[in-house]
Amino acid sequence: SGKQPVTVIGLGPMGQAMAGTLLDHGHPVTVWNRTASRANALAARGALVARSAEEAVAAHELVVLSLTDYAAMYDVLEPASAALAGRVLVNLGSDTPERTRAGARWAAERGAVLLSGGVTVPPSGIGKPESSTFYSGPRAAFEAHRTTLGVLTGTDYRGEDPGLAALHYQIGMVMFWTSMLAYWQALALGRANGLTAADVLPHAVGTMTSMPGFLRFYAERVDAGHHAGDVDRLAMGLASAEHVLHTNADAGVDTTLPETVVALFRRGMAAGHAADSFSSLVELLTGPTA
Ligand code: NDP
Hints:
Elements: E1 6-9, H1 13-24, E2 29-32, H2 40-44, E3 48-49, H3 53-59, E4 62-65, H4 70-77, E5 88-91, H5 97-109, E6 113-119, E7 128-136, H6 139-149, E8 153-159, H7 164-192, H8 197-209, H9 211-223, H10 234-250, H11 256-270, H12 281-286
Parallel strand pairs: 1-2, 1-4, 2-3, 4-5, 5-6, 7-8
Antiparallel strand pairs: 6-7
Helix pairs in contact: 7-8, 10-11
The structure holds NADPH dihydro-nicotinamide-adenine-dinucleotide phosphate.
NADPH dihydro-nicotinamide-adenine-dinucleotide phosphate is lined by residues 10-15, 33-35, 38, 66-69, 72, 75-76, 93-94, 119, 122-123.
Organism: Streptomyces litchfieldiae
InterPro entries: 6PGD_dom2, 6PGDH_NADP-bd, HIBADH-related, HIBADH-related_NP60_sf, NAD(P)-bd_dom_sf, RedAm-like_C
Domain 6-phosphogluconate dehydrogenase NADP-binding: 6-150
């Protein structure tokens, strides 16, 4: 076909979507998965199924890994070590920046180059150019393969440090998990008061839709270290956060999350920020830096 051949190792929902998308675009694809049956549907669509991870790695220069984490990469690739020299490993499993950097060193010691990726969409977003994946690692390897990787999702190269893709991924995930927990808390409070998720939805969407304005307003001030209490004061924020806590407690709803919010506001007060903006909590959260 003239299209670059690709090995895909790891056929969970993400790996299956990636291998399928590459096949749809005419790329020869070799696959391998620990649980062999997960390759059946791809084989029917034209993928070659390797008999071992080593055979899969040996098949093509470009090896996409879609595994749970970096520990799984070692489990899969240790037995394939003999085939690793000269390979470009594109690890699209998520993990911490530190574990990603260790993975890049591990690959280099075996003569391979590791590009790390953080995919920001679920399997349904694979194959859509408007989707995005953070990449980091050696620029030359990324540039050499960006066209093929661009078949999977849009590509957002963050730099040579292999930990950068994971860092940007985790910056998004810390917001995703806490925001979704905030939504579950709101739905629990609604339910305890006879409201369904459908009842709460328009209000919840409205609240989330207002957030970008807050993000933009505070970004510039935080970067300038400007936490003046001219638009909001931490003391006012604490009173409001306590109302949230008591509303949940009165309804018999779990208070772990609102208690944590109140505790952080109180620590900011104790640190002397009562008259500052609640953005001063960024300083508290950052902690003492070296
Ligand atoms: P799954 O957990 O469904 O798939 C994991 C894959 O890793 C399977 O192929 C599994 O093999 C393999 N695996 C795990 N541990 C080992 C091991 N010790 N040895 C060999 N193989 C192993 O995950 P997904 O496909 O959903 O996701 C893959 C990666 O993509 C994850 O890192 C995830 O965080 C990330 N991601 C996922 C998103 C999603 O919406 N699903 C969104 C963005 C990122 P087996 O089939 O044998 O179990």
